[in-house]
Each structure stands twice: as C-alpha cells, then as structure tokens.
Design a protein that fits this description.
- Pfam families: GerE, Response_reg.
- This is Response regulator transcription factor.
- Residues 140-205 form the HTH luxR-type domain.
- Residues 2-118 form the Response regulatory domain.
- It comes from Nocardioides panacis.
- The chain is α/β, with parallel strands linked by helices and 210 residues long.
- The protein has two domains: 2-124, 3-Layer(aba) Sandwich (Rossmann fold), CATH 3.40.50; 141-203, Winged helix-like DNA-binding domain superfamily/Winged helix DNA-binding domain (Arc Repressor Mutant, subunit A).
- 49% of the residues lie in helices and 14% in strands.
- The chain has helices at 10-21, 35-45, 65-71, 86-95, 107-118, 126-132, 149-159, 164-171, 175-189, 194-203; strands spanning 2-6, 27-32, 49-53, 55-56, 59-60, 76-81, 99-102.
- It has a five-stranded parallel beta sheet with strand order 2-1-3-6-7, sandwiched between helices. It has a two-stranded antiparallel sheet with strand order 4-5.
- Helix 1 packs across helix 5, helix 7 (149-159) packs across helix 9 (175-189) and helix 9 (175-189) crosses helix 10.
- It is globular and about 45 Å long.
- The N and C termini lie far apart (35 Å).
C-alpha cells in the first residue's frame, strides 16, 4: 500500500512517515506540506491512501478533496483532524473522504486507519457516524441504478457503523459477498468510498430513518 502524507507540521509528517514506512506492506511515497506539492505528488506517485491535513498554508484541505480525487480517483482520502467542527467533517464526507483520524491518536492508530482505508473500510467511529449522518445535505434524488433489497440492507448496516466483517456476520454471508454488494451499490450511487455512498444515500432519501 502506497501512502502520501500531506501536512504542514514537519515534525508530525516526519514521524508519520518513519512509522508508516516501517510497517509491513506500507510504503510512504511522498510527504507534502502544501496543496500545490500534493497535486504534483498525487499525479506522479500513485498513492493508495492520502493522509490529508484539513488546514494547509495554501488552502483548505477539505475543500480540495474533490480536486485531489479527480487527479487520482482511486485514492482513499483520510483527513487528519485536530479539533475540526462537525460541519468540516460533514463537508469532507460529502467530498468523498474515506474517513478521519485525529492527530491526538497514537501513531499505531493512524497506521490502523491507513490499512482500513486501503481495504475499503470507513475510517470513522460508529458514534461519530451516527452524529454526522443526520447533518448531511438532503435534496431531490438523481436517477440512478435501482438498489436491490440486499444492497439496501447493506447500506443500512453501513449507516449503523458496521464493518464488512460485522455486516457479513449479520447477514450470514461471506466478507467477499459483502464487498461485492458494497462495490455494486457504490457504482450505482456513483460513490468512491463507503462514506461517500452514505452521503449520497442520505441526500437521495435512501436512508429515511435518519
């Protein structure tokens, strides 16, 4: 898994780079301190995961998520937060972030978040997810592929904060089957991450209980 770190705090970035690079299967392909540097590295280093500070010297990291994902659509964006307000976190979800990790967490927890994001998991606690989902923007639905009943079940369980393994256990199916359902419903919704799929589902009224 290839990781790009974008944070203007040099001590934190250097520490993260050393720890992540030392983990089996992880390679830090670059460290950027500005959005301008991030754009260049994203285009040339092909990362799987982008650790992105939400405040950078030359712009707002969250506001730039859409632009950065346009450069590399497959990248999983994990936002590094200190004390971000809920509206910032909601904006990150709506922009397609895979999740969040606090700068106050241990380096090992950040490592776990990177691995989870690379595996397609939503990097967010169930408590935070429950708090943020009702705040997502709602609006008229856009014509999309119709979700199957099972895909709606999976979507509802995602909204409850369950992992792929937990969903598999709940539905008595394999994790592979759950991943296929998530891939299918994400494709129908035009989403590139679990959180983005939930954001679109809320906007389009597919989660009426929220």
């Amino acid at each position: 898994m290839r990781v790009l770190i974008v944070d203007d705090h040099e001590v934190l970035s250097a520490s993260l780079a050393v720890v992540l690079d030392d983990q089996p299967g992880l390679t830090v392909v670059g460290v950027a301190g500005t959005l301008a540097q991030a754009r260049r590295l994203l285009a040339t280093s092909a990362p799987d995961v982008l650790l992105l500070d939400h405040r950078l010297p030359d712009g707002d990291g969250v506001a730039a998520i859409g632009e950065l994902r346009a450069i590399r659509p497959s990248v999983a964006v994990v936002v590094l937060t200190a004390s971000a307000a809920d509206h910032v976190l909601v904006a990150a979800i709506e922009a397609g972030a895979a999740g969040f990790v606090s700068k106050t967490r241990s380096l090992q927890e950040v490592t776990s978040a990177v691995r989870a994001a690379a595996a397609g998991e939503a990097v967010i606690s169930p408590e935070m997810l429950a708090r943020l989902l009702p705040r997502l923007q709602r609006g008229g639905s856009t014509p999309r592929g119709e979700l199957t009943e099972r895909e709606r079940e999976v979507l509802a369980l995602l909204a409850d904060g369950l992992s792929n393994a937990a969903i598999a256990g709940t539905l008595s199916v394999s994790v592979h089957t759950v991943r296929n359902h998530i891939a299918n419903l994400s494709a129908k919704l035009g989403a590139h991450s679990k959180l983005e799929a939930l954001s679109i589902a809320v906007r389009d009224g597919l989660l009426p209980d929220l």
